Amino acid sequence: MLGGEETLLQATLNRLQSIPDAGAPMLLCNEAHRFMVAAQTQEAGATPSHILLEPVARNTAPAIAVAALTAQAAGEDPLLLVLPADHHIANADAFAQAVASGRAAAEQGGLVTFGIVPDCPETGYGYIRMDLDGDEPDAVPVLEFVEKPDQATAQGYLDVGGYVWNSGMFLFKASTYLEELGRLQPAILEACQDAVTQARSDLDFIRLDEAAFAASTEDSIDYAVMEKTDRAMVVPLACGWSDVGSWATLHETLDQDPDGNVFVGDVQAVDVRSSYIHSNARLVTALGVENLVLVETSDAIMVSTLDRVQEVKTLVSALKEQEREVVTAHSKVFRPWGNYECIDCGHRYQVKRITVYPGQVLSLQKHFHRSEHWVVVTGTAKVTKDDAEILLSEDQSAYLPLGATHRLENVGKFNLELIEVQTGSYLGEDDIVRLEDVYGRMKN
Question: Do 381 and 391 touch, CB atoms closer than 8 A?
């Protein structure tokens, strides 16, 4: 949650409610984010038709292809509205009207994109030059896609008119996209067909075949299809849109105080101007600074000036070179039964905060290298310990010695919250021997 009560993914899902006849959403995400995506979707009250798991990242052209193939597998040829989950749209009604305006062109075989009407000479977005002489009243032909311009060129686009920002949102029939992808990039389509054909179900997810999907080249829909096709159409859209791709953009998007600041979370600031400060877990204080981005999470703290925050990838690259665990593993980890978060660790001990959703149950398991102590904070837990079953409520605990067979279940109607203290010679997540698991998992 970057500034409101809902995440960007939830905002995207809720935005679909303004679109008549919108079917069940299909979600595509990285395998590591699957339980977080499922939890957020459930919190938003949405029931997805599918949640597809990408085993490796291959950019948007293959991703949209596997979605289109999966949609066609039901024997239909639906219109697909392709939406990134990191966009901010202030006016949902204007967005819904733009989708309605593009429907006819998409049904007639057009590859429709939505071009944001520019309000400044932005250099961070690509542009689309429109054919304003067309007869189509809603969607107009695309003349060309233009790479991110410099300041003078962007100002020229605004002065001459007929240019819009490339939003990365699309509307087309599944068959139309697959036909053009097959014509322009047949190797990508073939790899995606194999990945879908060889996919397997896993709980509420569909796992694309890793070898087949990895065989696809990595390419965006813009480069692979939209810039080469003669079917591209664009609907101009003014809806208070932002691609929340950086903290600087988020600072511009959210409501600022009289000093140009955006504060999220527990922030105390004195004599601070034109800054974005985000506190996730701790009090953050600031004094006498300006043009600053400071983001505190349970994983790390990031500090940058607003004008250089786009360079955060250089920090990530440095952390990768140092093989820092924070790059590959978050402190909060989602599971099908809930989530856990490491809140302290040291030599031979680790402390976790565990949340178990109502009615959910962890696997029956044991450990070879650690013992565990569970303390219930809120809720009611049923604990299996070898041959015994124990009911625990708030402020009650259970000790699970090394080698004991154990299981945890939330038998209440609300989230079960507990603190787990692990002690032992090895505390890795791979020290789990599962004996039974209702989710059919072979690994943790």
Answer: yes
The residue extents of the domains of the chain are 8-243, 247-318, 332-436
- Residue 416 contacts residue 381 (beta carbons within 8 Å): yes
The pLDDT value recorded for residue 85 is 92
Topology annotation, domain 8-243: Spore Coat Polysaccharide Biosynthesis Protein SpsA; Chain A (3.90.550)
344-371: per-residue pLDDT in tens? Answer: 999 999 999 999 999 999 999 999 999 9
> Residue 197, class by beta-carbon neighbours within 10 Å (0-12 exposed, 13-18 middle, 19+ buried)?
exposed
Helices and strands in the chain: count of H runs, count of E runs: 11, 29
Q: Give the separation between CA 212 and CA 192, rounded to whole angstroms.
A: 7
Residue 305: Cβ-neighbour burial (10 angstroms; 0-12, 13-18, 19+): middle
- What is the rounded end-to-end Cα distance, in angstroms, of the chain? 27
7-42 pLDDT tens trace: 889 999 999 998 988 999 999 999 888 998 998 998
Single out the residue of 285, 253, 281, 254 nearest to residue 272, CA to CA: 285
Environment class of 133 (CB within 10 Å of its CB; exposed 0-12, middle 13-18, buried 19+):
exposed
* pLDDT at 246 > cutoff 70: no
Residue 342 makes CB contacts below 8 A (sequence gap 6+) with 331, 350, 351, 352
Distances (CA, A) of 325 to 97, 153, 300, 331: 45, 42, 11, 10
Q: Residue 24 is encoded by which pair of tokens?
A: 């069940």
Q: Do domains 8-243 and 332-436 have the same CATH topology?
A: no
| Close Cβ partners of 251 (under 8 Å, ≥ 6 residues apart) | 262, 275, 276, 293, 306
The architecture (CATH level 2) of 332-436 comes to Sandwich (2.60)
Within 10 angstroms of residue 317's Cβ, the number of other Cβ atoms is 11
Nearest to 362 by CA among 424, 393, 405: 405
Three-state SS at 280? coil
Is the pLDDT higher at 27 or at 322? 27
Residues 87, 85: Cα–Cα separation, whole Å? 6
The whole-angstrom separation of Cα 441 and Cα 432 is 12
Query: Which is nearest to 293 in space by CA: 253, 330, 268, 262?
Result: 262
* pLDDT mean across residues, the chain: 92
Task: Judge whether residue 189 has pLDDT over 50.
Answer: yes
